[in-house]
From TrEMBL:
The keyword Flavoprotein applies. Belongs to the lysine N(6)-hydroxylase/L-ornithine N(5)-oxygenase family. It comes from the Bacteria. Keywords: FAD, Flavoprotein, NADP, Oxidoreductase. Its cofactor is FAD. It comes from Rhizobium helianthi. This is Lysine N(6)-hydroxylase/L-ornithine N(5)-oxygenase family protein.
Length: 438
């Protein structure tokens, strides 16, 4: 039975037990956990995109997941859930066909369908095309409970929502180096598919970066833009494989979140740095080998379509006429060269969106922070406030330093969602201060 949604009439008094900002995998897993564990709570989710979409700009044919389908949005918490990936395949009539693929790693296109299938079950609780622009703390008065006021903007204008608890799951924000930001002909891999029609046959393209997206983009453009010339500009000697060996992969297991959280900061930093190659600037070996195959065939045929610039950085790009002139710094030879291009694609990573960018001044001031300025979060991904009675604000995407490498990934979402939902207080009959919500 879907949980109750108290925001049915947008012009009405809008108060929910729980508001979710963003409706990507994190908050979908939370919505499922609420339905399964706390159906008595009312909830609403706000998603800036007009409809469900999971990194759609990189939904490339042939790209596969970097996580086992067993680590779907529910199975590690509740393997009997109707929202498992297996249940999805069964409903779509593909269970046997998928089994014959003999893989743990579905295509991203299929996983996107799975996520969308889960999201659809909560359509009445999700407000698509609505961006949360501001979060303000409501402090308790007398016997009233604390909460949050959200300023939400959508096609129909602005409205205010009141929530006793908030989960911020704004996900990742694409990063483009400052020197290339806003330059004509330069875009981030997160916008690769919408920009493909700009790449005419014979286009000259630089792909900047050495991670998973860079490798996928280089392979994809080489195969899908006839006669294209691809310059892979990599800051290291060559693309390095992601470490997904079994003992190391245990770093993503739910049971290790606890020990990671309780370890001294220096040990946490050590784990993040020693095992960064599980996730950062790390590529599926099969994708590296596929790129190498193309590179080798290119040498063999002398076509000159795939160029690897090792230990190199693209430091500037200027649009001259219809050409992008890129300046590349080569560390090995200590030289600089210029490339004439039609497009520069930055596979230069992401950073987690920061909830503080949405807070009003008073709310930011009340935050508890650490010496390094980071948010003080507890084991349940909850931000600390310097107040005797604070409402719960969860920021799971922002917890890599405290909870480990799984914080920005899918691996631990099922268990994490259960922990968050179970921790929600049983106070849904208490009132917010009238002066605030009137
Ligand atoms: C191309 C790509 C492939 C990936 N593949 C994998 C993988 O195979 N395995 C894995 O474990 N991880 C993978 N990741 C990591 C990725 O972060 C997670 O898969 C997952 O997307 C995190 O889910 P999320 O819901 O926290 O964030 P997101 O999926 O980023 O969703 C956040 C949502 O919040 C919305 N939003 C942001 N701000 C606001 C606001 N103010 N108001 C309203 N809505 C807002 C955004 O529109 C977005 O839809 C991949 C990442 C990328 C970029």
């Amino acid at each position: 039975m879907p949980f109750q949604n108290s925001i049915s009439d947008k012009n009405h008094f809008n108060l929910v037990d729980f508001a979710g900002i963003g409706f990507g995998p994190t908050n979908i897993s939370v919505a499922i956990a609420m339905e399964e564990l706390r159906p008595e709570l009312s909830a609403s989710f706000f998603e800036a995109q007009p409809s469900f979409g999971w990194h759609k700009g990189l939904l490339l044919g042939g790209a596969t997941m970097q996580v086992s389908f067993l680590k779907d949005l529910v199975s590690f918490r509740n393997p009997r859930s109707r929202f498992s990936f297996t249940s999805f395949l069964h409903e779509k009539g593909r269970l046997a066909d998928f089994a014959n693929l003999k893989t743990f790693f579905p295509s991203r296109i299929e996983f996107h369908q799975y996520l969308e299938w889960c999201a659809q079950a909560f359509a009445s609780q999700v407000n698509y095309g609505e961006r949360v622009e501001e979060i303000s703390l409501i402090e308790p008065q007398g016997s009233s409970a604390p909460g949050f006021r959200l300023q939400v903007a959508g096609a129909d204008g602005q409205r205010r929502i009141f929530a006793r608890n908030v989960i911020f799951a704004g996900g990742l924000c694409p990063q483009v180096p400052e020197t290339l930001r806003g330059k004509s002909g330069v875009f981030h891999t997160s916008e690769l598919l919408p920009n493909m029609q700009r790449l005419r046959p014979g286009s000259r393209v630089a792909v900047v970066g050495a991670g998973q997206s860079a490798t996928e983009a280089a392979n994809y453009i080489y195969d899908n833009v006839p006669g294209s010339i691809v310059h892979a500009i990599v800051p290291r000697f060559g693309h390095s494989p992601a470490d997904d060996s079994p003992f190391v992969n245990q770093v993503f297991d739910p049971e290790h979140v606890e020990s990671f959280f309780n370890a001294p900061a220096s040990i946490r930093e050590k784990i993040l740095s020693v095992h960064a190659s599980t996730n950062y600037a790390a590529v599926d070996l099969a994708d590296i080998e596929a790129l190498y195959q193309r590179w080798y065939m290119d040498r063999l045929t002398g076509e000159g379509r795939l160029h690897l610039h090792r230990m190199s950085r693209l430091i500037d790009a200027t649009h001259i006429g219809s050409t992008v002139v890129a300046t590349v710094n080569h560390e090995l030879t200590q030289t600089t060269s210029q490339l004439e291009l039609d497009a520069v694609i930055c596979a230069t990573g992401y950073r987690p969106r920061d909830v503080r960018d949405l807070m009003d001044e008073r709310t930011r001031e009340a935050l508890r922070t650490n010496n390094d300025g980071s948010l003080d979060v507890d084991r349940l991904y909850r931000v600390g406030f310097d107040l005797p009675h604070a409402p719960a604000l969860f920021v799971p995407d922002m917890c890599e330093k405290t909870h480990g490498l799984s914080a920005t990934l899918i691996s631990n979402m099922a268990v994490r969602a259960g922990e968050i939902v179970q921790s929600l207080p049983h106070h849904h009959n208490t009132k917010l201060p009238l002066s605030e919500v009137a």
